[in-house]
Design goal:
This protein is of the alpha+beta class. The protein has 2 domains: 105 residues, Phosphorylase Kinase, domain 1; 138 residues. The protein is built from 8 helices and 12 strands. A 6-stranded antiparallel sheet has the order 1-2-3-8-6-7. The chain has a two-stranded antiparallel sheet with strand order 4-5.
């Protein structure tokens, strides 16, 4: 659900003068974000949405999410995330980081070559053994250092993920009611069959605060090295999972 009209902020960010640039601004939109590409920079804002798994409904929540995104992603993508800017209003004028009412927030990033996203490199046949070995080593290193979370059994952890998925299916309009029922039943059956294994893995410390969205489009080659970026910053429950669940996002993309 959209909670605020952000049109005036979007128009400001579409103006290259707002960023001290003269070139055109390219805009990319997702269901929860907008990215503005201009010159050598990218500026990312959160859409004012409230969904079962994310709440960006107020400027303060969006600012906090931006700050958390930079904090988390700077671990796996050093140098890519630069700063968080406050969008403020004084009278009828919007500005970045000036005194006034907080109306929004935006993340400043280095703009990188989009052909270096791993989904595009996959389509171009450029995922070499050497590159994928580097990706695998980086993910393994990241997972080894990720915080171990003991907040319940492994089966309960995945059960929580399935509840979030079910709520998302119900509002996405991607599947009809019968398809949703079939999917949810299959997930519950798989959970039941693997519950004891998931519980053993949680006890062994395999449930950690992970990336949470580790598909090919969220990995890029930056400064000559594979980098993980755009992790889940807005919902710790989604990102706190078994490390193999985290890895499964990437494996599904590679198999596809």
């Amino acid at each position: 659900m959209i909670t605020e009209n952000q049109d005036v902020v979007v128009e400001m960010l579409k103006n290259p003068a707002s960023h001290g640039e003269v070139g055109p601004v390219e805009t990319i939109e997702t269901h929860i974000s907008r990215i503005f590409l201009v010159g050598r920079r990218a500026f990312k804002m959160k859409r004012a949405v409230k969904l079962p798994y994310v709440d960006f409904s107020t400027p303060a929540l969006r600012l906090a999410a931006c700050e958390r995104e930079v904090e988390l992603n700077s671990i796996t993508a050093p140098g890519l995330y630069l700063d968080v800017h406050r969008v403020t209003r004084a009278g009828d004028r919007l500005a970045l980081d000036e005194p006034g009412e907080l109306v929004d927030a935006v993340i400043e990033m280095v703009r990188f070559d989009q052909s270096k996203l791993l989904d595009r490199m996959a389509a171009a046949g450029e995922l070499t053994p050497a590159l994928m070995t580097g990706v695998a080593r980086m993910i393994a290193h990241y997972h080894r250092g990720a915080e171990v979370i003991h907040a319940g059994s492994g089966s309960a952890n995945i059960g929580g993920v399935l509840e979030i998925n079910s709520a998302g299916f119900a509002t996405s309009h991607v599947f009809d009611r019968k398809e949703i029922e079939t999917l949810n039943a299959a997930f519950r059956d798989a959970l039941s069959r693997n519950a004891s294994l998931l519980d053993r893995r949680e006890a062994a410390g395999r449930v950690r605060r992970c990336h949470g969205d580790l598909h090919l489009r969220n990995i890029c080659v930056f400064d000559g090295e594979p980098r993980l970026f755009d992790c889940i910053e807005f919902n710790d429950q989604i990102a706190t999972v078994d490390v193999l669940y985290d890895l499964a996002f990437l494996l599904m993309d590679l198999w596809h």
